[in-house]
Structure formats: structure tokens, C-alpha cells
Amino acid sequence: MTYCPINPLSPNIFADLQNMGCFEFMRTEFVAGTLIAIIAGVIGYFVVLRRSAFVAHAYSEIGFAGAAGAILVGIAPLAGLLLGSILGGVAIALLGRRATYRDTQIGIVLAFALGLGLLFISLYSAFDTAAISILFGEIEGVSVAEVYLTIVACVGILAITGLLYRPLLFVSLDEDVAEAKGMPMFLLGTIFMLVVAVAVSFAVQVTGVLLIFSLMVTPAATAQYISKKARSSIAVSVVIALFATWIGIFFSFYTNSPVSFFITAIVFSLYIIVRLIDWSLFRRVTRNVGINRG
Amino acid sequence: MSSNNSIIIAENLVVGYGLKPVWSKANFSFGPGEFVAIIGPNGAGKTTLFRILLGLLPPIGGMIRIFGSEPKRGNPRIGYVPQKHLVDSDTRIECLELVRLGLSGTKWGFNPNPFSHKERDAAMAVLEDVGAADLAHRHLGILSGGELQRVFLAEALASRPEVLLLDEPLSNLDIKRETDLLHQINNVVRSHGVTALLIAHNINPLLPHLDKVMYIANGKVATGKPSQVLTSESLSALYGTQVEVLRDPHGNVAIVGVEEHHGDML
Q1: How far apart are CA A6 and CA B240, in angstroms?
Q2: Residue B189 near residue B35 (C-beta atoms within 8 A)
Q3: Could you write out the DSSP letters of every residue in A148-163?
Q4: From B159, which residue of chain A is nearest by alpha-carbon distance?
Q5: Do B109 and A177 count as a contact with CB atoms less than 8 A apart?
Q6: Contacts of B69 (CB under 8 A, 6+ apart)
Q7: C-alpha span between A161 and B83 (Å, rounded)
Q8: Separation of alpha carbons A88 and A60, rounded Å
Q9: How many whole angstroms separate alpha carbon A246 and alpha carbon B137?
Q10: What is the least distance, in Å, from the CA of B153 to any CA of chain A?
Q11: Distance to chain B for A173, nearest Cα, Å
Q12: How much is the ipTM here?
């Protein structure tokens, strides 16, 4: 094993990156973070378009119970996350096509799941550390095996999304017409819910259960204000998620503050900036229209 | 009543949900290029007819044929504009994308050739047909009700359907926009030779354009030329009570006597 010096942050960014990349766990973290940002950026676009943000949050919290249970019985938290959120995905798919609007039922289930997670985690000896890492993210602990699994998930999710791209867009924008045109609504809805569940499980490793919106919602919501086309919005959403994750990992390494904090701060700032620009452009347009009319 | 070149034909049709009929014993036939208004109070079963034609709901009894066969879901020869849409002010996607989905939304995968302008040009052409070419690159969230209806109409027309089903496209529009949109719909229907069925509450703005009217009320259906259906005798028979059809010098009709007896249906 090579010796890696721990240098403080210097003005030479290349030296800083080189120093960071010397550590194997940092390289693992970087690869995992990159893959997860791609998944979250792509799936996040459809989550925002279909107004399924609350559902995504529900998966995340049902996944919390799964992860806490997994820690308790001594298996990888990711396995518990996947199991929990996929079960949640199946349950919500069974609720039917209007599931997105069933805020009450989803809220009831996720409160129960959070409570169950709390019980599991309180039964575990290292209560505080485990709880904090699941709730707020702990990408530092990602193993090489988990990175391979993340590669498989990333390829799988991108392949499924690519295959369903146009029907998914159609169903998301014009449900009744898509149904009349013979689209398999239940199948599409179920596959989409499962893909979101898997995407959430992986993204939770970076952002934690509670900050899931920072990768699954904010980048895509910001992208919608930058591009009016679906494909380029998805690309912008991925770029924002990647940018936030990379900067987050970098600053986290040099400051010891959590990665997820930096990600939330970066995506939030970008969202505010983009909204302000959009608002001022819109104001200028309406003012010009007013002048023309006058 | 039936004719050989009918696009849509029904005999003794009974429709409803479960075993409960909404209306029954309906006989009608619509030919190619006919513009038909479907009028009636809320809950009379106007949208139910569309669900039957789209193959989303089986009839309870009787016979219905569209293009000579039983309705089935996913018929590409039907264009449909539903009453409710998922679009709101947060839907930040340009109109052209939605219209393109009317062409290729049911196909799997991405557009195989992203550099081909064929689909894009076809979508622009329908937007032009409905007088909405200037909306192509604006996002759906900021459009007015009338503009949205044009875009949805373009989406439905994109696949060049032979039958067009429009569910209350005129609701929530002021009189000026209602007249404009109706004019546009009429142009498209005539120039494309589409058989159009349009659900509406108020028949008067439609009267100059219509070939037929289908009046649904009281669990029954009356269909025919406006001059045949919109008479005191015909509507009295439909409602089962004395109804008076009054006409002003411009040909507008007012139906009186219905509210007093059947206020719960309106």
C-alpha cells in the first residue's frame, strides 16, 4: 500500500486533486459518487416531471427501516435499503396510477417506516453513528464491491430509462391520451416506481435518507428552468448532480464536513440563481410586451 | 338511420358503469368528415361515449362499430383531446415536444435518428394547422387555456387521425377565445376531412359549423341534424316533459322549461 500524505488545501487545485486521489477510499468514493449522480440526475427528471417527489422521499424513508434492520442483523445496509425501497415501490405501484396523489396513505406508511427504523437502530449498540450515517449519508464507507454493484445499477437504470424514454415522457405529460393510445399504464407505472426505488437506494448512500431531494429533485428542477427540451434537461440535470457531488467530495475531504451538506448547499444555490435569472428575464419580457401594447 | 359509409355506427347501444346504464337505446351513425356536437347536462354520459369509442369501456348492450369493427384501445385512427390534463405552471417543457409525442410517444426508446428533422417538421406543420406555430418553443406552463387547447389539438392531429374526439375544449374560455378556437377547429376538421365529435355545454357558438348534434339527457339520446334535434317536440320527448326551444333572429337557441323539472340534472 502506498503512503499518502495528508496535505492541507493549497491554491494549486491540481496538487490538491492529486493528493486526494492518492487515497484508495477517495477514488472509490469518487467513482461511486459519479455513478450515483448520473442515476439521480436522469431519474430525478422523471420524478420532477411526474410530480413524484413525495413518493421518492417515501422510498427513502422506507429504505431507512430496511437499512437499520440490515445493520441490526449484520448485513450490508445497501441490501436493506434496496429491499425496503423496492417493497415500498411495489406497494405504491399496487395503489394504482393515481398513487402520486395519495399523499395521505404514503405519509402514513412512511411515518411507520421511520418509527420502525428508529426501533431497529436503537437496538443496535453504535446507535448514534449508524443513525447519522443512514440519515445524512456516508459515501466515505462505500466498499469496492458496492461500487461494482453501483455500476450494474447505473447501466441497468440507464438501459431501462432509454428503452422507456418516449412512452414514459408521454405518460408523464398526457396520461389520458397515452392510455387511449394503448400504452400499458400499469406496467409502465410499476417499472418506473421500481427504477425510482433502486435509484433512491443508491442515492441514499451519498445524500442520506433525509437529504435525498438534493440529488433526486433539485438538479432536475433546476434543469427545467435552463432547458425546455426533455433530453437536454436530463443532460443538464446530470451535469448539476455531478458538479455538486464532485465539489462536495472535494470540500468534504479538505474540511471534514459532510459531503451531503456541500451537495445540498451547491444545488440549492444553483436553484436560487437560476430561478432569479428566469424571473428577471420573464419580467423583462412582460415589460417589453407592456411597452409594445402601450 | 344507418348508411354504408358510416365511420361510427350504433344500434340499440346501452352504456354505463358496471350494470348501471347511464343512457340506453341509442341509435346513431356518423359519416366521414361530419362535425358533431355532443350536448347535455353534467353527468349525462357524454364522456362515457368517448370512453366506449376509445375502447376503454365496453358497452353494456347493443352494438357499436367504429371503422367497421368493435372499438379497441390504441386505435391510431382516433385522435383524442381529454378534458383534464396534467399540465400546470410547473410543467416546463416546450409545446413542440408534446406535439411530437402525439406522433411517436407510443414508440419505445429514443428517436433513432436525432438529426432527422422529419418528425420535428411534421409536428411544426400540425402546429401551423391549428394556428399555434408561434407557441412551438414556449413552455406548456405559461400558456393560456385557449393556447393549451390548440397545442393539445395539434398533438391529437399529429398522427393524422380520421376521427377526432374533443372533450369540452371550449370550457373555461371567454367568448372571443371560444369563437377563435372553434373557427380553428372547424378549419382543421374541414381541411383534413376528419370526423369530429365535440363535447360542449352551450350549443350556440357551434351551430354555424355543425353537421349533426347528439343530445344526451335523462338516460336517452337524440341524434340528427340540428334543425331536427333542436325542436320543442324532439327535446320534449327526450326529457319526457314539456320543453320549449326558442330561437332569436340570429338562429341562437334557448331551451326553456328544462331547469324547473330537471334542475338536479343540470
Answers
A1: 91
A2: yes
A3: HHHHHHHHHHHHHHHH
A4: A181
A5: no
A6: none
A7: 29
A8: 9
A9: 33
A10: 12
A11: 6
A12: 0.90
B80 and A176 within 8 Å at the Cβ level: the answer is yes
List CB contacts of B6: < 8 A, sequence separation 6 or more.
B29, B30, B31, B65
List the single best residue of B106, B120, B164, B166 to mutate versus A (max A Cβ within 10 A). B106
Q: Is A160 on the interface with B (CB under 8 A)?
A: no
Nearest chain B CA: its distance from A279 CA (Å): 13
Count, residues in chain B: 266
pLDDT in tens, chain A (294 residues): 578 888 888 888 889 998 888 898 899 999 999 999 999 999 999 999 988 888 899 999 999 999 999 988 988 888 999 999 998 888 877 776 565 567 787 888 889 999 999 999 888 877 677 788 888 887 777 889 989 999 999 999 999 999 999 999 999 999 999 999 999 998 998 899 999 999 999 999 889 988 999 999 999 999 999 999 999 999 999 999 999 999 999 999 999 899 999 999 999 999 999 999 999 987 776 665 544 433
Residues 6+ apart with CB under 8 A from B154: B95, B99, B102, B123, B126, B127, B129, B130, B132
Q: What is the per-residue burial (b if ≥16 Cβ within 10 Å, else e) of B229-251?
A: bbbeebbbebbeeebebeeeeee
Amino acid sitting at position B261: H
Among candidates B76, B78, B106 on the partner chain, residue whose Cβ is nearest the Cβ of A183: B106
Instruction: Report d(CA B151, CA B162) in Å as an integer.
Output: 18
Residues of B in contact with A51 (CB under 8 A): 90
C-alpha cell at B205: 357558438
Q: CB-based contact (8 Å) between A195 and chain B?
A: no
B119 reaches A (C-beta below 8 A): no
> What's the residue count for chain A?
294
What predicted TM-score, i.e. pTM, was given to this entire model? 0.91
Task: Tell whether A98 is within 8 A of chain B (Cβ).
Answer: no
| CA nearest to B66, candidates B102, B28, B36 | B28
What does the DSSP 8-state code read for residue B117? -
All domains in chain A, ordered by first residue: 23-215 (1.10.3470.10)
